[in-house]
Amino acid sequence: MPDLQRPTLIIRRAEPEDIAMCAHLDAAYQTDYVWQMHLQEDERAVQSVFTQVRLPRTMSATCPYSPEDLMAAFEQSPHLFVAAYGEEIVGCVSGFAEIWNTGFVVNNLIVLPQIRRKGVGKLLFKVIKELAAEQGSRQLMAMVQTKNHSAIQFARQQGFVFCGYNDRYYPNGDIALIFTLTL
Question: What is the pLDDT of residues 138-155, one digit of tens each?
Fold first, then answer.
């Protein structure tokens, strides 16, 4: 039976007044796993290996960006969509096309902790994926912190594959794992 007390979830393009609310969404998460990097380099080869390691205890982590940085990124993003129950924004996704390589970068996907694992992230991702395809993009790219196991699992469930990393990508010095999805 439908919940008559709660409005229906809608996914829509963000309005300018939504940007501040998106920038202040709780993007914190907990994890039991990290991808640990092992780098071996000599004059003839460079080898990097990532190993999924179980942590001795659950670790809490916050978004690597400040709300001010997120607000600036959202203001500059040509594509920002929100998931909302009525006036309450519970998630957002942003991205931009890279015309030079017919790619599309999904640079933020945030869903409130109490709403996670209920399909909201999948709906937001579906909208941005469809937009990328409509614009002629051939692939999606997303960067994820090595310690954001839930986001890594989500990306893999959506069909993304690991294709590389960027050392010290995030402001806090964390490594970004790079995932791509062919459209």
Answer: 999 999 999 999 999 999
